[in-house]
Amino acid sequence: MGRASATAAAAVVAGLVAVCGCTVQGTDGKGNSPVHIELPSTKSPSTKADDRPSPTPTATATAGAPVLWRRGDSGRDVRELQARLRQVQWLFDGPTGTYDDLTEDAVRGFQGKRGLPKTGETDTVTWQRLTKMTHEPGKWDLYLMGGQPAGAPDPRCLTGRVLCIDKTTRTLRWMIDGRTVSEMSVRFGATGTPTREGVFHVYWKSRHHWSTLYDSSMPYAMFFSGGQAVHFSYDFSARGYSGASHGCVNVRDEAAIADLYAQVRNGDKVVVYW
What pTM, to 2 d.p., does this model score? Predict the structure, then answer.
């Protein structure tokens, strides 16, 4: 190409830069400068989380990412991981706060879907990707299936034999003379059928009780106020705090309430409070 032709070509390129916003990038290694024309995009950026598999180079780049949590770990952070995995429907149990085999499988599936190394361990890259696709869980997302700590007992619970039931923390303490014998997560009545607050006493125990009013099973029922009782709930065990009772105090841990039922006597005090 002659000098005049080269000059003309340069002028054309300069014109394209001015009009289209093009850029000239790099060289071809032979002293020539290839022109790369980048036209402005007509697509608006998407705010939706990218659910498509990432390209292979991303998987290679994250292979050495620091691991935050792995199988066998436990605690509040693991609860949050499990709650976020539930949001994107990779985990359906829990949160339990324990990084078990189900959590490991869920993480591995999430990683594979997005082109990340399928280790089943939550590294920094996996965690960053998950947090971008989910929102911060609330308290009852973290404790959907129970396991929350109990609050300080009401002063009325500090003497005698008492079922001390805290609506704020959704927990039941079985206490004898101010000492906590056991604790368990409980669920209460819905807005239209609230669990009554106050001081009551167990007046009837029914191991295999069946509610004729609601046509449902109420195992280990300990009645304290009319038709309201502390009892095991299959629904609470399966759905957690996604549901509610008709006014009873539901327990989801069958082994725990079986043990409690064996200890509680008619006449024992029941305190229900906020």
Answer: 0.74
**β-bridge partners, 218:** 209
Please provide the distance, in angstroms rounded to a whole number, between the alpha carbons at the two ends of the chain: 88
3-state SS, residue 145: coil
Interatomic CA distance for residues 56 and 129, integer angstroms: 16
| Sheet architecture: strand order including 249-251 | 198-201, 269-273, 161-166, 171-176, 179-187, 249-251, 228-232, 216-225, 204-211
Phi and psi at 98, nearest 5°, equal: -120, 130
DSSP strands (E only) in 143-203: 161-166, 171-176, 179-187, 198-201
Per-residue pLDDT tens digits of the chain, which is 274 residues long: 444 444 444 443 344 333 333 333 333 333 443 333 343 444 443 333 444 444 443 444 456 899 999 999 999 999 999 999 999 999 999 999 999 999 999 999 999 999 999 999 999 999 999 999 999 999 999 999 999 999 999 999 999 999 999 999 999 999 999 999 999 999 999 999 999 999 999 999 999 999 999 999 999 999 999 999 999 999 999 999 999 999 999 999 999 999 999 999 999 999 999 9
CB 103 within 8 A of CB 81: yes
CA distance 158 to 113: 53
- Nearest 5°: phi and psi at 215? 50, 55
Cα 205 to the center of its chain, rounded Å: 36
Give every CB contact of residue 64 below 8 A, 6+ residues apart in sequence: none
Q: Is residue 115 a contact partner of residue 59, using CB atoms and an 8 Å limit?
A: yes
